[in-house]
């Protein structure tokens, strides 16, 4: 932890995919700020919750949920609000960047891809709206990726969703702004989670990617935490409808 955001203490935070990869680092980061964190994911996260309680003296609320089940996702948000107070920070983080060839994509696969990478983001935003209005405001952080900005091939369903998330963020920021609800996108570069290392990282691929970065260090999940805390906190109170890129300088904006 390199920064402290006092307004995040006791904040009610809801994170999708908060028990592994980048999501686990985010859960830890918010707990370190004294926030009340609830998160969903499909696999059991009881051991992770034990680790977080030991590390922070603050146990996150794990709610088993498949985010493609929108009713279950809404129910999990309701449970988090009941336990911690109205959710005022929503982090839509869960995604699946499975590689696939355009020629192999069926309608069913396309719908499945969007059901993970785009659809739950919208309905989570929709479902926290009333509570954030009642609380006098809130912050929504939608995770995208630089993959579509780079024009990457090899997973068109995923890059389409990433671009859609950015468009959705801008539209919802306009709609939600009068109620002091901010909506921003966080677009990471190639973050070396264990999943990435297990499935796709090779010395050649990683070397080629780092060559494209201005900053030549590998990006760890922890490198994403402070930018998300900033977007969640009042430190960014006049920032909405924006895409914050954290990629070591691969793509440029503006």
Task: Outline the structure in words.
The protein is of the alpha/beta class and 254 residues long. It has a single domain (6-246), classed as NAD(P)-binding Rossmann-like Domain (Rossmann fold). It has helices spanning 21-32, 46-56, 70-84, 107-117, 119-135, 156-176, 194-199, 203-212, 225-232, and strands at residues 12-16, 36-41, 61-64, 89-92, 138-143, 181-188, 243-246. A 7-stranded parallel beta sheet has the order 3-2-1-4-5-6-7, sandwiched between helices. It is globular, with a radius of gyration of 17 Å. The relative contact order is 0.15. Its EC number is 1.-.-.-. Belongs to the short-chain dehydrogenases/reductases (SDR) family. This is SDR family oxidoreductase. It holds the Pfam family adh_short_C2.
Which SSEs are present, and which pair or pack?
Layout: E1 12-16, H1 21-32, E2 36-41, H2 46-56, E3 61-64, H3 70-84, E4 89-92, H4 107-117, H5 119-135, E5 138-143, H6 156-176, E6 181-188, H7 194-199, H8 203-212, H9 225-232, E7 243-246
Parallel strand pairs: 1-2, 1-4, 2-3, 4-5, 5-6, 6-7
Helix pairs in contact: 1-9, 3-5, 4-6, 5-6
